[in-house]
Amino acid sequence: MCGIYGYVGKNDAYQEVLKGLSRLQYRGYDSSGIAYFNDGFKIKKAIGTLDNLPQSVNCTPNIAFGHTRWATNGEVNIDNTHPHISYNKEFVLVHNGIIKNADIIKEDLIKKGISFYSHTDTEVIVNLLACLSGKIENRLEKLYKLLDGSFSLIIGYKSGDIYIMKKFSPLNILKADDGIYISSDVSSLKDGFLYSLNDNDLIMITKNDVIALANTKIDFKMHVNKIKEFSLGRFKNYMLKEIFETPKGIEKTYNYLQKQNVRKIFKHFNEFTLIGCGTAYHSCLIGEEYLIKIPKYKVKCCLASNYRVLKKIKRNHLHIIVSQSGETADCIKVAEQIKNFNGKILLITNEETSTMAQIADYKIITRAGKELAVASTKTYCAQVFVFIYISQLLLNKKFTINIKKFINDLEEYINKINVKSLVNKLKEKDKLILIGKDIDYALLLEASLKIREIDYIYTIPMYSGELKHGTLSLIDKDSVIISLNTSSDKSKLDVVKNEIKSRGGEVIAIDEMVDLSIISERFRPIFAIIPFQLMSYYIALKKGFNPDMPRNLAKSVTVE
């Protein structure tokens, strides 16, 4: 979601923070701001992209920190944009997370005569800090205890010193030859010595040193990360680029899996709960379809936001959590509950250095490559591939695939897909019904999400057999129904299609537009989702929307 980046060192800190924030902008944001120290902290803010911020300032500061904001408290405007400054100008700070008791604290501060210029919980934090008494270290310890919710904070004091702390929201510090870097995302940091903050940590950063406060123990470890400057190349948008990168991502994931002893992870487990949010949850549903067919195992699939651990976890029970970013707040909360009950977690993620990767007992890393577009495409396909791989191992079968042929077939298939006629037909529609059976219904949940999040079209994914139990009343001559059948039984949906056509509705069968016979039924879910991804992308372009950054959405959802 929001991005935090800071720098203290010998370089131009304003420029370092600008560059750092640009590496975090894939997370999605609607405004940004930077605080830099020049005889006191000065602040620059802008609505929209980083291009709207001043690209330089009339000094060369050695201390700066900034923020890209995705609005959760308060609308998108300059007043609500971070950084926020306290009423007495003593502190300035940026914040990721949600403060649940912000309204109660704000009401109390207003009674004390404190006025507010924004509608954010972040301004509540900085004013509360300014009202606390004692030495700064003690004030920050009090602040930590008073705040209910999640937060990662960079706090600038009027002297130029910086303090950092976090609770349930990631924050990292890196020491390099040219200075000290702070970021909410490890992947944005260069080579150096890295420390990922724990809850309750309190760290002070001066012009010369990193100082652990309040019983914090810092353990810096070597971090090597070749920061990639991403380029669109021949593509117009990252979403399209990433769809076409799907084959390469699956090939790299397969090579990674072949080097891991994945079978060993499952040796002592025969009950699985698959957990995720959004697209990751949809990949879990596909995984459930594969795993539930193996008689030896019990499998269920749950949304992270709706899953609670209420009883002792059995020793043979493995929780498989899927999170593209490894920073999904709902998943982290569930993971902490599981660990409190001594449960075991396998994480499937695309980010090896994420918060979830530090919590999990076992990890499988999809090697799909960095995904910058908000709508997940190539990482979803890599997640599905991992579940197919796992299911084969649990069947006590060797995972046999001619990977070179598979990748070539997938590349050729993607290049041949033509959704132009479909895009022209659907671009003016305000609602769509998607129907399928069995595993295809799980696929259509993901297809429906893509159309909703990129094209802002209301979609209803349904089990085909449920259409006649109420929803058939919606069908008329203006209705378009999209069907999907990845099985080899081509007559599977004939009755339902006839019911729709007899009421004047139009049925578009995706499986008749593309050739799924080139691949075994086992891998068809990967092939079948791609026409929907491309369709949603091109509809967005036709409607004048930015497919990479849909409204109101962020790449990494780090608040509940």
As for the number of domains, it is 3
**Could you name the CATH topology of the largest domain?**
Glutamine Phosphoribosylpyrophosphate, subunit 1, domain 1
Main sheet characteristics: 8 strands, antiparallel
Order of strands, widest sheet: 3-2-4-1-10-9-11-14
Q: Structural class of the secondary elements?
A: alpha/beta
Distance between the termini: 11 Å
Total DSSP helices: 17
Low confidence ranges: none
CA-atom Rg in angstroms = 25 Å
DSSP strand (E) fraction? 15-25%
CATH class bucket of the largest domain? Alpha Beta
Mean pLDDT: 91
Secondary structure tally: strands: 23
In CATH, the architecture of the largest domain is: 4-Layer Sandwich
> Helicity level, as a percent range?
25-40%
